[in-house]
Design goal:
- The protein is an alpha/beta fold.
- The chain has two domains: about 5-295, UDP-N-acetylmuramoyl-L-alanine:D-glutamate ligase; about 305-435, Mur ligase, C-terminal domain (Protein-Tyrosine Phosphatase, Chain A, Alpha-Beta Complex).
- The chain contains 15 helices and 17 strands.
- The chain has helices spanning about 5-15, 25-35, 50-65, 95-110, 120-135, 175, 180-185, 205-215, 260-280, 285-295, 320-335, 350-360, 380-385, 395-405, 420-435; strands at about 45, 70-75, 85, 90, 140-145, 160-165, 195-200, 220-225, 230-235, 240-245, 250-255, 305, 310-315, 340-345, 365-370, 390-395, 410-420.
- Strands 4-3-2-5-1-6-7-8 form an eight-stranded mixed sheet, sandwiched between helices. The protein has a six-stranded mixed sheet with strand order 12-13-17-14-15-16, sandwiched between helices.
- The two termini are about 45 Å apart.
């Protein structure tokens, strides 16, 4: 058993070597042994390719403004592991991690001896979250972010009151399939019988899969552009302003501080979710809670402007093709008159050629770097994929950042983007450097 936080973390992370083992049998086995903490939760399940974390944040902030206690289970973490299991936005304590690890560790050993095999790192963390919110610290509602896919994701053990699918993109194609239809089928696996599904998915073939699953499950479906709409959208210096129209009513002049058109879509999913909570689940959430919650929402590393001017510095965890497209669209809209320098690091299992092609279009200069992570792409390999006339690579990302920050002129824009794992490692260094 574990007596220190370090021991608990070492064991949890040691399970990473097991990789991804799709299926819910191990989760079902552990939940049975724990006397089903997942059945004690009132929850919302959020899946999709991009926008999950932002949608969780918008929802959490609104619910907190209305006075509810809100648990969240998210991934990956940005600054500390404990963030993955949080209550009202506050990560759980180290001693709670130790307690939860000690709850799951004996089950892990026992499960290892069965035909199912031992649990993965993500299954252990999911079980810890379910145990925490089900037994140790119940919340009024818990928001669960899907880890990968949906149908066989370990979070799919829950039975939520609402399900959300934010978007569909061609990510993790080696596991989920290489077409929008195949990926949508996996994401739609979180839809439960009779449980409302809210989505901002755009591709027709993906929508069709979600609709078919919703019909099969007799689950009412609320789709952006069909049952609810975004109107009167304008970008502001620090974010976005827009109106959301639902089948119930209209909420005008919503303001968010998270920049990008895609963030208006994530916020509209939260608004639609709140409307359903009010109408069908006896939640009491006023307009003032919606407006205040959306405006105060913050999710690190999502078009995060850490220096507003002289020069502008933006960090963005665009880690797949759709994320890069959203980033470059925003850069074109906001900074088309400025010189844009990009520093980029990525994992090797992404569609790197397409991502880099998009970055090449907006970058006046692009530098490729690498970082210490098992699946991190090498800087030189990224460099070779670029067709930019002003491209560079540096294995030492700190040295590259030093060089780029020192070279910036007052009207330049520096964008650091790519893997969220890279951004979480890089951000503290960059902040200390520019202060």
């Amino acid at each position: 058993m574990f007596t220190t936080y370090e021991e608990a973390m070492e064991w949890i992370h040691s399970r990473l070597r097991l990789g991804i083992k799709p299926g819910l049998k191990r989760m079902e086995w552990m939940m049975e042994k724990l006397d089903h903490p997942e059945r004690r939760l009132k929850s919302i399940h959020i899946g999709g390719t991009n926008g999950k974390g932002s949608t969780v944040t918008f929802l959490r902030n609104i619910l907190q403004e209305a006075g509810y206690s809100v648990g969240t289970f998210t991934s990956p973490y940005f600054e500390q592991f404990n963030e993955r299991i949080s209550l009202n936005g506050i990560p759980i304590k180290d001693e709670e991690i130790i307690r939860l690890a000690n709850d799951i560790y004996p089950l892990s050993l026992e499960l290892e001896e069965t035909d199912l095999g031992g649990p993965t790192e993500f299954e252990i963390i999911t079980a810890m979250a379910l145990q925490y919110f089900g037994r140790i610290h119940p919340a009024d509602i818990v928001l669960f972010e899907v880890g990968l896919g949906g149908r066989f994701d370990s979070t799919n053990i829950i039975y939520p009151i609402l399900s959300v699918i934010t978007s569909i993109g061609l990510d993790h194609t080696n596991i989920l399939g290489d077409t929008y239809s195949q990926i949508a089928l996996e994401k739609a696996g979180i839809i439960k019988p009779g449980t409302g599904i809210i989505t901002a998915v755009k591709q027709e073939e993906a929508i069709e899969e979600i609709k078919n699953k919703a019909n099969e499950m007799k689950a009412p479906m609320y789709s952006l552009g069909q049952q609810f709409f975004i109107d009167e959208h304008v970008s502001t210096p620090s974010g976005e302003s827009f109106t959301v129209k639902t089948q119930f009513r209209e909420l005008k002049d919503i303001e968010i501080e998270m920049a990008g058109k895609h963030q208006t879509e994530n916020a509209s999913l939260a608004v639609m979710g709140v409307e359903l909570l009010n109408k069908y689940y006896s939640f009491l959430i006023e307009d003032e809670h919606i407006y205040a919650g959306l405006k105060s929402a913050y999710w690190p590393g999502r078009f995060e402007i850490i220096s507003q001017e002289n020069p502008v510095i933006v960090i963005d965890g665009a880690h797949n093709e759709e994320g890069i497209q959203a980033l470059t669209s925003e850069l074109k809209k906001r900074y088309q008159e400025k010189k844009i320098t990009i520093v980029f690091a990525a994992l090797s299992d992404k569609e790197l050629d397409k991502m880099i092609l998009n970055l090449d279009e907006v970058a006046n200069k692009i530098t490729f770097v690498e970082f210490d992570f098992p699946r991190a792409a090498e800087a030189e390999d990224l460099y070779k994929l670029s067709g930019n006339d002003n491209k560079h690579f540096n294995k030492d990302w700190k040295a590259a950042l030093d060089e780029e920050v020192n070279a910036l002129k007052s009207d330049d824009v520096l964008v650091v983007t790519g893997s969220l794992y890279f951004l979480s490692e890089m951000k503290p260094y960059l902040l200390s450097y520019i202060k």
